[in-house]
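Entry 14: structure prediction run for NADH-quinone oxidoreductase subunit K. Input pasted below.
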Amino acid sequence: MMPSDSLTTYLIVGVFLLFVGLFGMIRHRSLIGMLISVELILAGAGLNFMAFNRFTAPDPAVGQAFTLFIMGIAAAEAAIVISLVIAVHRRFHSADPQAIDELRG
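Run finished. Output tokens:
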């Protein structure tokens, strides 16, 4: 399968990932579902950076650096959220955000 030669195709896929991620953030009731939705949003942002880099920027390293930065942020965010989910599950025996109403230290 050949990659598309049109910027519009990549932007449509990036916007689709953004809206699926936003829908998942609104719709999901679990912390893991929300984490996956944020990962989709960040993947859409990375795809847009790479598409604009390929079709409009004269220096190809800039878009790739931004995309690597986004991937690093996504990995750090996933590690932090998973550790928080484990801590919340140990304390409240549930990962449902609606069931957790006391977060005092």
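Notes: Residues 23 and 37 are 8 Å apart (CA to CA). Will compare against the previous run tomorrow.
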